[in-house]
């Protein structure tokens, strides 16, 4: 696994450089007069009506919002006075978020008790990952070796955070496009270390456990086999990975990427699988960018599971989704989706898969 070059930012946050072969990171001292970090920067509040935790992070109101290109905090800062990445250049970097939703490491949350209001410190970890120093680039434009380096960085952070006490789930993701809500256009993603299982993950594991009891096999493997056998929603596949539009897709454009064998997370993929994943991931993102005249806004979500008994049925996969439903229209999550979590799709999954297959 790739070993990063480690450094510290002016306020004590961790900074990690991941380099391509032959490149040697050269960080400089971060000389910005940053305010000290607050020990309790956010809260977790328990919603008794749903049984879910809500993160309250008011400090994020102050985060950097759509700066001009020459003031981008994710571009290299060779003087150590202008950037979150104090260096002349870099390949891939990861650093603790200056405006974190979760920070510090605490004990496992456990189940709230009593009938009153429950609030605890928002312990956990939120990191930023910059895919490239190229401000105007995108993940889809990365050369294969560079994309593989991003995957290696995801894998490294997954391993380290999963081994951190108090971290229950590691979530690597990318928000791409102002339509999604992105406030920094530099190509980047984030990595969250939650102190609890997120509602979506808990629901999927519940379904997987019920499927195992009823049918005796893994839910995700069964779905993958059914999609391959049907074929109408397959976008592309290679010997080791398959990309398809799911049968019950909720988003106007939605593609899931599965390894062809059962693994729970990036750590369990071997070298050939990591290469194949990076290649197929680039393929799908390239198809996204060719759908319309402008790049497709999307969310990329890596679903990973620990190897603990409680998560034994979890199958690593990536879910890519976009709110763009035509070249000129967006899908807004209105009352049915936002209030009831009842999605209404404006397109058929089969037609989306056919469109994406033709863009290869």
From TrEMBL:
Matches recorded under Gene3D superfamilies: HIT-like
Domain Galactose-1-phosphate uridyl transferase N-terminal residues, every copy: 41-197
Gene Ontology BP, a term: galactose catabolic process via UDP-galactose, Leloir pathway
Active site feature: 188
Highest taxon of source: Bacteria
Signal peptide: none
Region (Disordered): 24-44
Cofactor info, note text: Binds 1 zinc ion per subunit.
UniProt GO cellular component terms: cytoplasm
Catalytic activity: alpha-D-galactose 1-phosphate + UDP-alpha-D-glucose = alpha-D-glucose 1-phosphate + UDP-alpha-D-galactose
Keyword Metal-binding in annotation: yes
UniProt GO MF annotations: UDP-glucose:hexose-1-phosphate uridylyltransferase activity; zinc ion binding
Residues annotated for Zn(2+) binding in this entry: 72, 75, 135, 186
Entry EC no(s): 2.7.7.12
Pfam family, one: GalP_UDP_transf
Classification via PROSITE patterns: GAL_P_UDP_TRANSF_I (PS00117)
Keyword vocabulary terms for this entry: Carbohydrate metabolism, Galactose metabolism, Metal-binding, Nucleotidyltransferase, Transferase, Zinc
Pathway: Carbohydrate metabolism; galactose metabolism
Cofactor(s) the protein needs: Zn(2+)
All copies of domain Galactose-1-phosphate uridyl transferase C-terminal, residue ranges: 210-358
PANTHER family membership: GALACTOSE-1-PHOSPHATE URIDYLYLTRANSFERASE (PTHR11943)
Family, similarity comment: Belongs to the galactose-1-phosphate uridylyltransferase type 1 family.
Matches recorded under NCBIfam families: galT_1
Protein name (Swiss-Prot/TrEMBL): Galactose-1-phosphate uridylyltransferase
């Amino acid at each position: 696994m790739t070993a990063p070059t480690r450094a510290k930012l002016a306020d004590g946050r961790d900074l990690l450089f991941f380099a391509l072969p032959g490149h040697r990171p050269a960080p400089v001292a971060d000389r910005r007069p940053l305010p000290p970090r607050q020990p309790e920067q956010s809260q977790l509040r328990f919603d008794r009506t749903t049984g879910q935790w809500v993160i309250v992070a008011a400090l994020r109101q102050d985060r950097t919002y759509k700066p001009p290109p020459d003031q981008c905090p994710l571009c290299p800062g060779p003087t150590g006075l202008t950037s979150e990445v104090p260096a002349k250049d870099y390949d891939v970097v990861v650093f603790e978020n200056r405006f974190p939703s979760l920070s510090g490491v605490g004990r496992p949350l456990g189940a709230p008790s009593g009938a009153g209001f429950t609030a605890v410190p928002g312990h956990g970890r939120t990191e930023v990952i910059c895919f490239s120093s190229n401000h105007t680039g995108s993940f889809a434009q990365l050369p294969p070796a560079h994309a593989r380096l991003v995957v290696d960085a995801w894998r490294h952070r997954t391993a380290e955070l999963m081994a951190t006490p108090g971290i229950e789930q590691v979530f690597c993701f990318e928000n791409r496009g102002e339509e999604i809500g992105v406030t920094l256009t530099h190509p980047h993603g984030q990595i969250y270390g939650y102190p609890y299982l997120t509602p979506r993950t808990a629901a999927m594991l519940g379904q997987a456990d019920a499927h195992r009891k009823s049918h005796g096999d893994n839910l995700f493997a069964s779905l993958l086999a059914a999609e391959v056998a049907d074929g109408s929603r397959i976008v592309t596949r290679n010997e080791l990975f398959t990309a398809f539009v799911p049968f019950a897709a909720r988003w106007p454009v939605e593609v899931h990427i599965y390894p062809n064998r059962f693994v729970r997370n990036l750590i369990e993929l071997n070298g050939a699988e990591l290469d194949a994943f990076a290649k197929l991931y680039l393929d799908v993102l390239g198809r996204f960018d060719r759908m319309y005249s402008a790049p497709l806004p999307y969310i990329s979500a890596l679903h990973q599971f620990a190897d603990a008994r409680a998560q034994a049925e979890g199958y690593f996969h990536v879910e890519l989704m976009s709110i763009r439903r035509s070249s000129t229209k967006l899908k807004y999550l209105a009352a049915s989706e936002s209030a009831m979590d009842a999605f209404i799709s404006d397109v058929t999954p089969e037609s989306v898969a056919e469109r994406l297959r033709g863009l290869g």
